[in-house]
Design goal:
The chain is an alpha+beta fold. The chain has a domain of 108 residues: 2-Layer Sandwich (Alpha-Beta Plaits). It contains three helices and five strands.
Amino acid sequence: MKEYFQNIWYGLTTVLIGMRVTFKHLFVPAVTIQYPDVKLKLPERERNRLYVNMDDCIGCDQCARACPVDCIAIETVKSIPGEDLGKTSNGKKKALWVTKFDIDIAKCCFCQLCVFPCPTECIYMTDVFEFSEFERDKLVYNFVTLTQSEIEDKKANYAKLEAEKAAQKAANATSVKPAEKEENKQ
């Protein structure tokens, strides 16, 4: 009989110990944040969505090389002589047209390793953390400011310039060879 009452006492004490936290919060007013309207202040060094300021991007591809999961895709085209691409905000002259700058946030591990090697500091983490989507394709962010027709024009102009250089080089090579043959005959 003594063991029976000890088991009852043991059961009641363990329940009361377990309910201690519940009883503490029972009489304290709840603090509920109305999320969409009120947002918590994020820590200073949070890592969220990436953003690229294309006015400062020089197309150096260092961020894509630093990315451990290959979520950044960059394509560039050299500018033709006489074209002025402008300068970045820190005074560095641009030499490449950036025709593709895509970041696949679905692959991104938010490590911030792409931010540090950027010489113009054009890529950085923002404080936006709400980017859920129903389709995975919508998580690929395109930061290029050029239109598709402008991209095709830049590629065509550069291809034309390269073809002209190759033709000029071939013409120089053929004109040098007959002159060399005449010198060898003498």
